[in-house]
Amino acid sequence: MARAGHTYPQVEATVAALMDSRVVTCAPRVSTVGALARARAVGARFVALDAGRAVREAELARAAQWGLGSRRAREVAWRDLPSLPVGGAEIAARRLLLSGSSLVLVRRAGRVVGVVDAEALDLAPPPSSVLARLERSADRPSEARLWLLRVAGKIGEGMGAPAYAVGGFVRDLLRGGSAPPTLPDLDLVVEGDGVAFARRLAEEIGGTLLVHGSFGTASIEGGRAPAGVGHDGTALGRVDVASARRERYEAAGALPEVAPAGLVEDLRRRDFSMNAMAVALDPDRFGHLLDPLGGQRDVRARIVRALHPLAFVEDPTRVLRAARYAARLGFRVEAATRAAIRLAVERPGYVALSGRRLWRELELAAAEPRARQAFELLVRWRAASLWNLAGASSGRLASAERLCQWAKAEGVAVDPAELYLLALFLGRPVAVVGRCLDRLALTGEPRARLEAGAMAARLARRLEARRLRPSEVDEVLAPAPEPAVLSAWLRGGARARRRIQWYLARGRAVRPRLTGEDLLALGVERGPRVGSALAMLRRYRLDRAAGSLAEERELVKEWLTSGKEA
Q1: Are residues 148 and 285 part of one domain?
Q2: Cα–Cα distance between 248 and 462 in angstroms, integer?
Q3: Domain range for 492
Q4: Same structural domain for residues 111 and 182?
Q5: pTM
Q6: d(CA 418, CA 453)
Q7: Whole-angstrom Cα distance, residue 396 to residue 406?
Q8: Which of 29, 191, 241, 325 has the fewest C-beta atoms under 10 angstroms from its C-beta?
Q9: Which positions of the chain have pLDDT values less than 70?
């Protein structure tokens, strides 16, 4: 029985209460399969390696399953892990885990005797709110977005399925900056039936609902806030809704198998820490920030950090997303993430990864305002080998960027993905280009366009001639597919580039003032002669940059009386 007024010693819980002692130490050079065999032989759940590295037995098994059995275990392990003495405070371990560490090593006399695993603990991050940030902006799009978030929270509460805003919306909210003129896409996660939630939300905001039943996801496009919110019913952008889930990849690069899970597990399956935060939308917790993986810290530090060492092996398209985010946000890709990218890029082949998914990610990277920087990162990381373009050079990427900028300023439509790929193709053998297009699963017209563009060296040389009339430039370029013209610009010197820009912006649009009916009225015989006359008139306008209707009529009359072919 406790005695009144007596002082009792306070016992602080130590890290030993949290650690799992089923750990074995292996030499730094051990292979993945060797480390896995050693762990299984002694029933260990963790393998400790050199220099603050450790790996779960389950991760070694996945690495071996995905074709990395001969790689050193240290390459698939977590690196730069923090450590605590076995008598250290439990709260110190929890703080390290909440700051983003997946594992904490526990040491006695310098030797690893246990591991604290974030995935095995129910971690509760300290309270934090972004409500002030949500309410700070008074612009109309933000007002409409805030209305949408509150509606989503009330629907989730009514269904007993807590709803959260996740992904890029949360990341960009924490980054700050000015609000865009139109609302970007919004990702919502529901701890429950996401499709049923999306149907209910669509009833509130309108728009078109598209359901993807196999993944428990749905999208709403065309929704609007009601009159009086925003500006007479502000467009809400696209809203993507997903059920909280865990994912399992049976093969490297394959689409995952999914199963229902809680929010924290859903955040752990994501690509990068900056995208693994959530904002609670329930009315009683509205604006509460959940950040179990250290995303807020990484946003402040402007870092791209993958969530585990095998992130890019299980889904290699994340390599392209890492480059895209780093370029767009001006973030630095931290060392462990670069090592994980290198591991994925060096792994031979991804049979389960579809070319269509790769091409879609290339299109997204090319559409970025800082696309050149994204592609330069991919070249630096040798990631072009993922689409069978090993040894790609970044030498022409700056030229591709300049051509994109010029085309946008002039109102000339170009496909940026096509253009950046053409820049990577320059100087590569036809067989290499063919293997790349095979890997990207491009067929039909898209493939034919890129094949034509990859063989435009002769076109560029012809345009370097000292004296070419505008009609002669048109004669060179008009029969060529547009990708060949763009590739010729990338290959050519200043003279060739000026001529191509003239052709794309003005020359190809030049037409005679007279029509085919006008020519028939002037006495031109119906049939091929009409086409010849129109071609003659077009050459006349190209070379003289002008020509009235009267001049064209006189020219046709002279042509008819001369009896010459145009």
Answers
A1: yes
A2: 55
A3: 371-509
A4: no
A5: 0.91
A6: 9
A7: 15
A8: 29
A9: 1-12, 137-141, 177-183, 228-233, 545-546, 563-566
